[in-house]
Amino acid sequence: MKCFVTGASGFIGANLVHELTARGHSAQALLRPESDVRGLDGKKFERVTGDLLDQKALERGLENCDWCFHVAASYQLWMHDYSPMYAANVEGTRIVLETAGNAGCSRIVYTSTVGCIGLPKEVDGKFTPTDELNLATEAQMTNHYKRSKFQAEQVALELARKGLPIVIVNPSAPVGPRDVKPTPTGQLILDFLNRKLPAYLDTGLNWVHVRDVAVGHILAAEKGRFGERYILGNADGNWTMQEMLKILEEITGLPAPRMRVPYWVALAAAHVDETISSFTGKSPKAPLAGVRMAKYKMWFNPAKAIRELGLPQTPPKQALADAVEWFRANGYVKK
Fold first, then answer.
1. Contact assessment for residue 290 and residue 144, using Cβ atoms and an 8 Å cutoff
2. What does 175-243 look like in DSSP terms, one character per residue?
3. From first to last of its 335 residues, what are the pLDDT tens digits of the chain?
4. Which of helix, strand or coil describes residue 73?
5. 78 CB contacts (<8 Å, ≥6 apart)?
6. 324-332, Cβ contacts within 8 angstroms, sequence gap of 24 or more
7. Other CB atoms within 10 A of residue 263 CB
8. Strand locations in 32-90, DSSP E?
9. Do 217 and 208 touch, CB atoms closer than 8 A?
10. Are 229 and 213 in contact (CB under 8 A)?
């Protein structure tokens, strides 16, 4: 298939291009002139220069394409002005999906986030991972990134109802190779490796290999039902932060931090950090949005994607080991 990929320089997007080309598909990659394309090293692709709001570039890149993967998003947890985020994530999504539909793409895969799935609720001290039937409300969107992605997912659902061949995927917390930037989850692993993680918060994520997420996108194009959402996660990947750090200790031999920071302490520190940032213009080390998200166990059930798509289930420990290996091999870890 001839495939168009937005966000191809990002973590998921780069791995998606690798998986597409490995399967014999061709990739048209929408990239800004300044995009860091190290994650695409060694792969053949056709570059389309532009951004999500560049209608002409989108039309040019989507010409004669069979599949469109809209992976790109503005992902910052702190900005002076959030209007560019909403422009990219909401309006950009509408433009990409409509242009793909007008270009005649037979499949359009939109990359949402598990942030748009309802959060698990605690019952008798236990959390039951939630699935696609648990609908989040806009009131649960506690930061601008989640709010903009929630609005973007509503755009995708609306266009699917109007007949566009859209399948929505909701990745959880991917880790693995080619995390060039790195992502917040990758930075956590990197801080552990560089001994910059003295303590942890009592939170939880669903950890999944980024390769499985990339393959999940392709499976969604092949088998996904239009207008449906699929959580791209790992059934065995619902770990607390303490459990994840213990696994990193086993993989690396480095000691995991033993001190847990109370939530109220982290929240107070984030308020101070963001106040300083409002004067300096520099991003805070601990944004309020990140701390507020860490209040919850973000555990999810990917059974639907496993059942309907055949989503691979690489052990999460292997995902962490592959991330560690990639960071070490690419000079991210200090000697």
1. no
2. ESS---S--HHHHHHHHHHTT---EE-S-EEEEEEHHHHHHHHHHHHHHPPTT-EEEE--TT-EEEHHH
3. 999 999 999 999 999 999 999 999 999 999 999 999 999 998 899 999 999 999 999 999 999 999 999 999 988 766 778 899 999 999 999 999 999 999 999 999 999 999 999 988 878 778 899 999 998 876 778 788 889 999 999 999 999 999 999 999 999 999 999 999 999 899 999 999 999 999 988 899 999 999 999 999 999 999 999 999 999 999 999 999 999 999 999 999 999 999 988 766 776 877 787 677 777 777 767 776 666 666 778 999 999 999 999 999 999 999 999 999 999 999 999 87
4. coil
5. 274, 277, 283, 284, 287, 288, 289
6. 324/189, 324/193, 324/248, 324/251, 324/252, 325/177, 326/176, 326/177, 326/178, 326/179, 327/179, 327/182, 327/186, 327/189, 327/190, 327/193, 328/193, 332/182, 332/190, 332/193
7. 15
8. 46-49, 67-70
9. no
10. no
Residue whose entry in the numeric block shows the structure tokens 């991330």:
323
Residue type for position 217? H
Q: 142 with 82: CB under 8 angstroms?
A: no
Element spanning 72, H or E: none
For the chain, the residue count is: 335
**What's the pTM value of the predicted model, to 2 decimals?**
0.93
Q: Is the dihedral of CA 39, 45, 51, 53 positive or negative?
A: negative
Cβ pair 302, 240 in contact under 8 A:
no
Residue 285 and residue 12: Cα distance in Å, rounded? 23
